Each structure stands twice: as C-alpha cells, then as structure tokens.
Amino acid sequence: MPTRTVVKTDRAPPPLPFYSQAIICNGMVYCSGSIGMSPDTKALVEGGIADRTTQCLNNLSAVLEEAGSSLQNCVKVNVYLTDMTNFAAMNKVYESFFKEPKPSSKHLAVQVGSWGSSTGFASGAGTHPFRRRFLIAI
Length: 138
Hints:
This protein is of the alpha+beta class. The chain is 21% helix and 26% strand.
C-alpha cells in the first residue's frame, strides 16, 4: 500500500473539511482545486479574472512548495471557467506562471464556480524536478 502524506499550508486557503490541500503519493503531488480566495481574508480577491487567476496560481504554488515541489514540476493542470470569454485574460496570467516545458492542460467551461468564483484550477506535480509523469489532477 503506497504511503500518502497530507500537505497543509497557511499560505493557501484552508480546504473544506472533507478535502486536503494536497496529497503526496509515490513521488507525485495531487492538489485539490484552488479558487481566487485570499488565505488571509478567506474571501475572493477583488478585481477581475486576471486578479483571481493570479490568486489561484499563487495558492497552488504555495501548496506545491509546502510539498517540496513547484509549479514548474506540474505535468497536468485543469482550468475551470464559468465564462469562456474570460479565457484570453486567464491565459495571459497562466502563461506568466509557467516556463517551458509547460504542463499539459485542459480548459473547461462549468455552470457554477465554487464560492461564486469565475475560475478554478487543479494540478499535480512531481516532488523531484526530473520526475515527470502524466497524472489526472483532482
């Protein structure tokens, strides 16, 4: 049975009681979704899609760093948008967070975002910088 290690940091919003911010299993970090919520105020950040995308990715970055990884080790990212007209603005911010080789990604339009959010992200990353495998993000 693989060992599972819970990842928890105060630098990202706390998860709902039935989630973990992330789990490390077999050298991979499986992150729960993130929205544009400030870890300090526990409220969505003010502004538009670019501001909330920045906060989402800062939250994921904090969780991955707590796990001993980083956004640069991501192999798969799922992006959930409530309005695909926000794609270009979200993507501009998204591109600024990742260097080559960029992770594979999936962008989905969803009916309703969590906590009234217009964007959300889920990702996974290896804990070793050279360990890159495909995974399904949760």
